[in-house]
Write a structure and sequence with these properties.
- It comes from Thalictrum thalictroides (Rue-anemone).
- This protein has 647 residues and is mainly alpha-helical.
- 67% of the residues lie in helices and 0% in strands.
- It starts with a helix and ends with a helix.
């Protein structure tokens, strides 16, 4: 038997037969103007806000996110509506549709009608155009989709006219179209039309495609496929149309082998020949984990017959492959579609596949390289946003160390990484404690002529601080000074000091701070001094904070007084105050205003005794200063004030 012979062929069918001929596939294409993914980078980050802004930018750009969904780009409804509303004949409609890259195919008709669901007038005009120019591509599904759109008060006449057309073609009203129309009829008070529709549904034409399909499917489901079942199918005396065959195959989706046997059996009927509708229905059923050999067999048969795979079917099968983690077949199917001369997967679909490859159980770089080559050979360009999306996926499976391989594969097909790309990858390698790989990236940058600068090293140091790897971050800063000098090292140093302070290691920060200033020509920013001094005083490290005041003076900055005055006035002593006064000036004592500020702070904190103690240690010219005397005289004695409260 021919069918048994075909099954034997399936056992020996190799995917290589598809791969060897993939470049010759002819598949319908729609030239859509897909927008590239927006860049995750803000290219104009202000230097003075580097630490806070760049951190937020980096973490947002590479944070783990849910996987992308397969997404068919929606048609420009405004342009489509404008074209159809203004066109006065079919030629104008055809030319207008060409301007927005809409070709007339079964798949595209369904797509257009779905987009025009809320505009029955325009949808009907489009459907009429297809009916008059390309009616062979319309199926029962197309008619029922249009019928559902027309099921409303202002289009009742067109609704019933279309029902009559469908009856003549043997099409019944589908459950979806019936449900949609009946809801609208009831809502809009069309009682007679609702009753008529219910009667039509209750007493379907026994010769309609739907009823014949029901009988055929019932027969196939309840019997094993053998000569007896084939005889019973012949005895039904059906007029086999592609719509009937496709509908039968779809209803046999839970019995894929039986659906395939029926697909081949009906082909033996001399009056029947498969077309794109029936082929696509068969592929949709076979696109599953346990039928991949059969699926590729039909793909080849369809190709040889000159038909194309619908994008709807492609997306449906790809989603199944993804769910079952059949990545190899997903890549082969992508190759099939990218090899078409007309219709290709979108940029989003291509990116989705790249991300699926990198999160697979075992990263197959051969598959990834194959996809990016197919992508670029198809006229697309790899962008930074595509790279960043792939990196996100690597992060989600803790596989960022493979980023170098991904970047190399993209470079091999023309992607040219910018310095910003390197910086961002280096940051994240540091953030997952992959400092060795990050340093390798820096070496590769140098080799490619993209010289790392202070921002590159800052990226690494920032990443290492995020990973709480202060040892390597400190080492990287030293390397930075050796490689690029001290001129622009201030931001990286502030990031490093912030990392120390976040980990409550302010004293270690002070030690490293002192080492860098004393042993090199490096001059930290004043903001960095202020940050570390504040953190030191918070933990009570008064002596260390004073040491930074001395370094601050040496770097030519005015002393940072506020946190010291606040600290001494609340928990310090008169002796601490004198040490502070000595530290902030090269003279013997600072100006009188500094003394007055500290005395005022003591009084505000309710520490009059400590203010007196501090005053007793001050030089004579301060003790006798009129403003100082007035300040102290204005204060009530502590013992008298306490007595007044008791009284």
């Amino acid at each position: 038997m021919r069918n048994q012979w075909r099954l034997l062929l399936l056992r020996n069918f190799s995917i290589s037969s598809f791969q060897n001929s993939a470049t010759n596939l002819q598949v319908l294409k729609v030239n859509r103007n897909y927008s590239h993914l927006t860049s995750f980078l803000n290219r104009n980050v202000h230097e003075n806000a580097f630490n806070s802004v760049i951190r937020n930018q980096w973490i947002r750009s590479f944070s783990s996110e849910p996987a992308l969904e397969l997404n068919n780009k929606e048609i420009d409804q405004v342009a489509l509506t404008d074209i159809l509303s203004k066109a006065s004949n079919n030629d104008q409609i055809k030319k207008g549709l060409e301007t927005i890259d809409i070709s007339i195919s079964h798949d595209e008709v369904l797509n257009v009608l779905q987009n025009l669901d809320g505009n029955p007038e325009i949808a009907w005009k489009f459907f009429t155009f297809v009916l008059e120019t390309e009616k062979k591509i319309l199926s029962s599904k197309s008619y029922n989709l249009m019928l559902g759109i027309l099921g409303r008060k202002d289009f009742v006449q067109q609704f019933w006219d279309l029902v009559e057309i469908m009856k003549k073609k043997g099409y019944g009203v589908s459950k979806g179209a019936y449900s949609k129309a009946s809801i609208n009829f009831e809502k809009e008070g069309l009682v007679n039309d609702l009753d008529k529709l219910k009667e039509l549904r209750a007493k379907p034409d026994e010769n309609s495609i739907e009823r014949v399909c029901f009988r055929v499917c019932e027969l196939i489901r309840e019997n094993d496929w053998d000569e007896d079942i084939q005889k019973k199918l012949k005895d039904l005396n059906c007029s086999w149309s592609n719509d009937l065959v496709a509908m039968t195959i779809e209803h046999l989706s839970v019995h894929p082998t039986k659906a395939l046997m029926f697909f081949w059996w009906v082909e033996e009927n001399p009056s029947f020949k498969h077309n794109g509708v029936s082929y696509n229905a068969m592929l949709k059923v076979l696109g599953r984990e346990d039928c991949t050999d059969k699926f590729w067999r039909i793909v080849n048969e369809m190709k040889e017959a000159g038909f194309q795979m619908d994008m709807e079917v492609y997306n449906f099968v790809m989603e199944r492959f993804y769910k079952r983690k059949i990545v190899k077949d997903a890549v082969d199917l992508y190759e099939f579609m990218m090899g078409s001369s007309v219709k290709k997967p979108s940029v989003q679909d291509s990116l989705f596949l790249m991300r699926k490859i990198v999160v697979s159980k075992n990263l197959d770089m051969e598959l990834f390289s194959k996809v990016v080559k197919l992508f670029t050979d198809g006229g697309n360009s790899l962008t930074e946003s595509i790279l960043y999306s792939v990196v996100k996926s690597l992060i989600s499976v803790n596989r960022l160390q493979e980023c170098g391989k991904i970047l190399k594969a993209m470079e091999e097909v023309g992607f040219v990484p910018t310095k910003e790309v390197y910086d961002r990858i280096i940051f994240h390698l540091g953030s997952v404690q992959r400092s060795a790989e990050a340093l390798q990236f820096i070496t590769e940058m140098e080799a490619s002529g993209c010289n790392p600068d202070s921002r590159t090293w800052c990226s690494l140091i920032h990443g290492q601080c995020v990973a709480r790897d202060l040892k390597n971050a400190s080492s990287s800063f030293r390397n930075m000074l050796e490689k690029v000098g001290v001129t622009n090292a201030g931001y990286a140093f502030e990031v490093l000091m912030s990392g120390f302070c976040r980990m409550k290691k302010a004293e270690d920060a002070c030690k490293f701070f002192t080492e860098m200033v004393d042993e090199t020509e490096f001059r930290p920013h004043r903001t960095t001094y202020k940050m570390v001094i504040e953190k030191l005083l918070v933990v009570g490290s008064f002596n260390e904070a004073l040491s930074l005041i001395r370094l601050m003076k040496g770097n030519g900055y005015p002393p940072y007084l506020d946190p010291f005055i606040d600290y001494i006035s609340k928990i310090g002593s008169g002796a601490d105050a004198m040490r502070f006064f000595n530290a902030i000036t090269d003279k013997k004592f600072p100006s009188t205003s500094v003394f007055i500020r500290l005395f005022e702070a003591f009084f505000k904190a309710g520490r009059q005794n400590e203010a007196q103690n501090c005053l007793s240690k001050c030089p004579t010219y301060i003790r006798s200063h009129a403003d100082v005397l007035n300040l102290f005289c204005a204060q009530k004695p502590v013992d008298l004030e306490s007595s007044a409260v008791v009284a």
